[in-house]
Amino acid sequence: EAGVTQFPSHSVIEKGQTVTLRCDPISGHDNLYWYRRVMGKEIKFLLHFVKESKQDESGMPNNRFLAERTGGTYSTLKVQPAELEDSGVYFCASSPLDSSAGGYTFGSGTRLTVV
Amino acid sequence: DAKTTQPTSMDCAEGRAANLPCNHSTISGNEYVYWYRQIHSQGPQYIIHGLKNNETNEMASLIITEDRKSSTLILPHATLRDTAVYYCIVSQYNFNKFYFGSGTKLNVKP
Fold it and tell me: How far apart are CA B2 and CA B24, in angstroms?
């Protein structure tokens, strides 16, 4: 079974530019989450999709961040315009609706550097 | 979700058992205890979870006290590859958002 795939693994952009991160969850996983760790801070929840619907987006820092999951498969997280404080590692995770199998599976993350 | 308290760091000799404690005194009846670890800058890796009974899998054992206010993750034979930050998280079973906290940095030494 393929794991959670995130693309790109690294991205360096200038302040003011736009970046789009992509997450491909494990096939069949209806739950999809975005988390991030900014430098020196804890891993923080951003939002949660159930299929294509946003279940909880309470962790989104501001309206420069837009997450989508059209068709309930892969998800994108767009940052527009990027600011210096957006630098960090963005993790995606997925899990099935039937949570009896255990916790959710994380991807390896996208390291975003805004200069 | 209830918050957790973990020691900042711990050392363990290779081949010995690593016992990582976690306090979660405000845990509610429908909240599970989850353990994850993060090796270097990789994505967090699920280890184990439990409600009130002790649990064991191929990676670790989880011991939860009877009052559920604390738990211990046990790595029975730690290896150098187990060096990581270990996170104890309490959350409802419907996969509510996780609060990772600062975790415990486990250093496994030869």
Answer: 7
